[in-house]
Amino acid sequence: MTAFTRALRRTPVRRAAAAAALTAGALLLSACGSGDDTNASHHGGTGPSATADAGPGAGSSAPAGAFNDADVLFAQLMIPHHEQALEMSRLADGRASDPEIQELARKIEQAQDPEIKTMKGWLTAWGKPTAAPSMPGMDHGGGHGGDGMMSAADMTELKALKGKAFDKAFAQLMIDHHNGAIAMAGDERREGENPDAKKLAEAIVKGQSAEVEQLKGVLDRL
Questions:
Q1: Is 22 strand, coil or helix?
Q2: Residue 34 lies in a domain
Q3: Structure pTM?
Q4: % of the chain beyond a pLDDT of 70
Q5: What is the rounded radius of gyration, in angstroms, for the C-alpha atoms of the chain?
Q6: Which of 117, 126, 214, 216 has the most CB atoms lying inside 10 A of its own CB?
Q7: What's 87's domain CATH number?
Q8: Is 51 helix (H, G, I), strand (E, B) or coil?
């Protein structure tokens, strides 16, 4: 069974894995910053109610209000998730034959590219790295994890497809990918503190849930 075939058989259990990964990451970040509160504040560390730096973000204004570790991890994990969605969407040009798939790919690119810039700006303003910490059990793009990320083998196989075969594979893989993002955004809505981050999470849940239903409809008629 190929990596691509395994991707088509992923189940909703992966949403729970994504939630567990985000929670574990937030706990580790919190533990790392739970030493001397004064020292953490001096170095720009975040506790449960840290206040965002007023400095400008990269390509966006600094988010207003306090932020916590869940907000930081949400941005760190969602950036590479969005970046892979852009890579997938750009493959549709010259490969997709279904007009609805072509339009969805353009829509995904137009929505997620600005969101990447926004989240990078937040992390810059917060004095945090754009990459999430590497922790056992977390999947940041190797595929087959709870976040819906494709493996390198999945991407290679998708690149080799054209026409109806590409349309079907793209729809199924993007459904899995979106479901991973929805789970991550749901965790941010429950555990995050920054108003701007929570607002983006709400938009991701709403927008990508609608796109999942649309992609399911495409699969039904292909």
A1: helix
A2: no
A3: 0.69
A4: 66
A5: 18
A6: 126
A7: 1.20.1260.10
A8: strand
Domain-located, residue 61: no
Residue 157 CB coordination number (10 Å) = 18
Q: How far apart are CA 170 and CA 155, in angstroms?
A: 10
Cβ(54)–Cβ(62) below 8 Å: yes
> Which residues does 71 contact at the CB level (< 8 Å), separation at least 6?
122, 126, 188, 192, 193, 194, 197, 198
Residue 37 located in a structural domain? no
Task: Answer yes or no: is 12 within a domain.
Answer: no
Q: What is the pLDDT of residue 63?
A: 72
> E strands of 13-125, at which residues?
50-51, 66-67
Domain with 75 in it: 69-131+146-222
pLDDT number for residue 65: 80
DSSP state letters, 168-213: HHHHHHHHHHHHHHHHHHHHHHHH---HHHHHHHHHHHHHHHHHHH
Count: domains in the chain: 1
